[in-house]
Fold:
Amino acid sequence: MKKSPRGRLMFLVIFAALMGTWGCGGSTNRGQQTSTVQAHALPVFGVAFSPDGKRLATASGDRSVKVWDLEKGEEVFILNQHKDAVWAVAFSPDGKHLASASNDEKVRIWDAEKGQLTLTLSGHTGAVRSVAFSPDGKHLASASYDQTVKVWDAAKGDEVLTLKGHTDGVSSVAYSSDNRRLATGSHDMTVRLWDGENGQEVLVLEGHKGPVCVAFSPDGNRLASASAGNDSTVKVWDLENGQEVVTLKGHAYGVEALAFGPDGQRLATAGFDKTVRLWEVEKGQEVLILKGHSDAVTSVAFSPDGKRLASASDDHSVIIWDAEKGQEVLNLKGK
Structure:
């Protein structure tokens, strides 16, 4: 039986092993991965490409963030000032800064070139599970198990807004491409949209049966949400009218992560069934299944050009795939 996300968190607390997480039809081809190589000493919970696509950041239960040179397939540096598991990472739009979110209730902002800590953001009273820079780079949003989302001045570290409305831990946050809206997903099984300027709640989307993760389409007109609960579904919503456009079914268990490709036509999803799946959004068709991870896949990210896809897993590995062919390109190996 699969452990529930809440059960997983309790497992972390009780055993201090940091060994689990949740973030967030048509013809089918199967991508193959050749071997499992450990990128971190413990499960990897987050991945993010730099804006130029040359580097990848990874976050892990081993309390570290690693930055990788993808041309060489080597670690550039390790950031290890968090005091507990690191759940998520995000590069600033200009690639100069990197944000990380941790179980230690802190958000840290780093110089992405030098690997130096520049800001520590304190204010949450629960694990911080997700971070997202605004597209203009001026703000950083953080989602926490304290049931709030905070918006920070990314340069000064000042708290700008606190978004309250969820009735359980918030595990996912995303900005629309025009900076005007924030979307959040929660263990209360809802998706909420917020005004990015004043923090007012503008829409609540319901329909999932478990914790939810979210991702905006590149044009900001649609939102995808995925459930780590028993419904194991991905829903795509039209944000003009708040209506569900399509429900994607294929994962055998809960879906932990999702990401739109830069063209908005493809969506990558990942989950407890150890697979990454690629979908054609308009048709609602599954077009690729990437198999190879030996445990739950916790995070996915497209490269800026859409040609590569990164996946992170509880099996401690990070794999870079050819997003068109579904073939493994690189398997990151930690030092």
